[in-house]
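Re-running the complex after MR caught last week's input typo. The corrected sequence lines follow. Everything else is unchanged.
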Amino acid sequence: MHIAEGMLAAKWAATWYGAAAVIVVKGVVDLQRKVKEVPFFKPLLGLLGAAVFIISLLPVPLPFGTCSHATGTPLAAILVGPFLASVLSLVALFLQAVFFAHGGLSTLGANVFAMGVVGSFVGFGVFFLCRRLGISLLIAAFMAGMLGDLGVYVTTSLQLALALHGEAPFIEFLVKFLLLFVPVQLPLAVLEGLVTAGIVGYIYRARPDILLSLGVIKEIPGGVGNCQPKGVS
Amino acid sequence: MSAQGRILIGAVVLALVILAVVPAPGLAAAEKWIGTDAKVERLVAEMGGPEPKDPFLNTDQGDLLLFFFALGGFVSGVLVGYNWNRLFGLGKGVAK
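Corrected-run output:
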């Protein structure tokens, strides 16, 4: 969901800018450090940045004749952490606001907070909680993708209800937005969970050393020799 | 992943695709495939909230938005493919 230009009053737009900025600044600091520390970090960031951009722009046809888009931030958060995933979402949402009439510059902070910050932190938190509980990598990634996606839309509902309820009961507005989002977003959240699990599973099979270096897994099955891409001698 | 797992995932994806292409009963042609962003804007208008303003650059004119979507898809595809190849590809440039 992209909150369109001009839909939030200045005080709310500024509030969400401030909230998102705290996380994004920390992400930029982490980015500079990690690019120096981890050799394959640049191509990974390029891959994830483009993926978050296109996943969050692509309108997916959904049951009952509507369209919505996934977020991509839970996947990015699993791999590079929630702070860096928030930076990637800022870049993606800025380009979408400027060139694609999706969202707006005044609402960029709110959109980054929902998709970047909440999507990343929920996805990251769910993934590592699931792993702590001994749940398999694929199911943990699926849960992270699904719940991260839903977290974004619950946050957008909260943002809109907070900004628009006026004298009316806040909860009434919140329920209206949730009722609009949830039936549409549930199948898409399942799809986002499947895509997230699919990509994490692929990396685990093709380059488990990437997941090991990023701290996503603790050990490589079969040892470190089992981490060369197929066909590379 | 087990064969059962793959079949289950395939079935879920297939079910989602079938549900997505089934015509929605009772919807006028103009209402079909409307995005959630537009639905939210409509709901906000019904609630007496603010109308959305024109974006910073209004590319939603004629085929201009289609051009930007095609260009954005192409550039993203190139970036994903190039970096995917660097990370997982068969060439010599695989990032260690």
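None of the earlier attempt is carried over here. Residues 64-88 of chain B form the longest helix (25 residues). Residues 3-88 of chain B form one domain.
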